[in-house]
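[Q] Does anyone have a clean structure-token version of this?
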Amino acid sequence: MQKIFLIVLLGLSTGVFAQGTAKKTAPAKKPAPPVITMKNASDSFSYAIGLSIANFYREQGITNINTNLVVKAMNDAKLNKPKLNEAEINNCIMTVIQKTREEKSAPNRKASEAFLEKNKSQPGVVTTASGLQYQVITNGTGPRPALTDQVKVHYSGTLIDGTPFESSVGREPIVFGLTGVIQGWVEALQLMHVGSKWRLFIPPHLAYGDNPPGPPIQPGSALIFEVELLEIVK
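[A] Here you go.
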């Protein structure tokens, strides 16, 4: 099982306030943050590890980390006296990451569900058993690709609010195997004839779910694509 290392070095500062018993005194000034001095390559490497992995967890939306326990865990590991085994480490980390992603995606999922519910009653929109919605712009007369085929397409993608995030229009069309794309595309392309151009409305579970490739696509987002199937590549 692949190890997941929870090594997060985050700086914490606490306010220090002086309280007088007989007289009211001015609050003491907060101490200046310590100056980090890198004396050698080992110091720089150590600090870089902290920044790198702290940044990773911040990007996951995880901020409630007890850094005192992080330091204790590092010291326990040095002494080969860990309080958790490998399975417990992995389970703990993945549980928190998954819960955080689900919480972050909840508003987007709600907005996506509302959009798709309204959209399914629009003229020409077809909803499949999986929840995929599509609208035929142009219906081609060529063959349909199979799951094992490679296809050449032009496409453009937007969020449900109209924000564009990716497009091949104005560039070379892309070629890919059907098994290498999101499930909404896999399903739709097998329904399309070469020469067709469809508008796809893809729910989160057929797109990227809670694990999008990056902004502007957020966790739990439904996506809209216009896809033109140009040919099946032999």
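[Q] Thanks! Anything notable?
[A] The chain is about 30% helix and 20% strand.
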